[in-house]
Amino acid sequence: MEESVLRRGVAEFIGTFTLIFIGGGAGIVSGQDIVAVALANGLAIGIMVTNLGHISGGHFNPAITLGFVATRRITLPLAVAYWISQFAGAIVAAAILRGLFSHAAFLGAVPHAAGFGAGKGLVVEIILTFFLVWAVFATAVDPRGAFKSIAGLAIGLTITIDVFMGGPLTGAAMNPARAFGPELVSRHWTDAWVWYVGPLVGGAVAALAYEWLYLRPPAPMPVGPPETGVIEPRPGDAAVS
Fold first, then answer.
1. Out of 20, 23, 69, 184, which residue is the most buried by the measure of CB atoms under 10 Å away?
2. Model confidence over 18-40: pLDDT tens digits?
3. Which stretches of 57-193 are DSSP H helices?
C-alpha cells in the first residue's frame, strides 16, 4: 500500500462509519433480531474490507490495529491516525443514528451485557475478538492466505458467527469503536470497560499467537557432509554449523 496517511485515514473512517451505521442501525430497526443484526454487521465489514482493504488494510477496529502494532506490522504514528479515524467514524455514525431515532430506540445500538454479567461478558468479548483477529491474520496478513480472493468474505462471516453467539450476551461488539460511538452519544456507560478491555486483549493475543506460530521466519535447515549426521548440501546450499 502506497497510500498517504490521509487517504488511509479516510478509508478507516468510512469503513468504521459503515459498521456502526449499518450494524448499529440494524440493532435499532430490527428489534434486536439476531439474524438481521449478525448479517448486517458481517456484510458491512465484509464489503468494506473488499472495497477498502487495498488502501488501508481494512482494519475498522482499534483492536485489529493494536494487533498490527503488537506484531510490528504498522508504525505507531500510523496506528494513532487509524485510531483517530476509527473513533471519529463511530461517533459521527452514532450521532446520525441518534438524530434519526428516539433515545429509547437508539439504545438498541449500544452494546450491553444486562442479565449476563460484566465478568462473563469480558470472557465472551475476548474470545469473539480472538476469532476475528485470527481470521484477519490468517487471510489478510499471512502471505499464504487468500486476501485478494476471500479475505473480506472470511472476515465478514467470522463477525456474523460471532454475533450469532455473542449478540444476545454482550452485543458482540469485538471493537472498542463500535462500543464507544453509541456509548458516547447515548451517555450509556454501564460496564463500558468490557468492550475496551475484552477486544483489546483478545485482539492482541490472537495477533501475537498467529505471528509466533505461523509468521516467524523458519530456522534454516542444517546441511553438511554425511559424517556430520546432517543432510548433505544441495546445489546452492551452504553448510550450517
1. 20
2. 999 999 999 999 988 999 999 99
3. 62-70, 76-100, 103-106, 118-136, 147-170, 176-186
Query: What is the pTM assigned to this prediction?
Result: 0.88
**3-state SS assignment for residue 73:** coil
pLDDT band at 231 (very low <50, low <70, confident <90, very high): low
Q: Which residues contact 233 (CB under 8 A, 6 or more apart)?
A: 223, 224, 225, 239
Q: List Cα–Cα distances, 136 to 102, 105, 158, 217, 238, in angstroms.
A: 35, 32, 9, 19, 36
Sign of CA dihedral 61, 62, 64, 65: positive
Distance from C-alpha of 64 to C-alpha of 43, rounded to nearest angstrom: 18
User: Residues 67, 204: contact at Cβ < 8 Å?
Assistant: yes
Other beta carbons within 10 angstroms of residue 65's beta carbon come to 27
CB atoms within 10 A of CB 167: 22
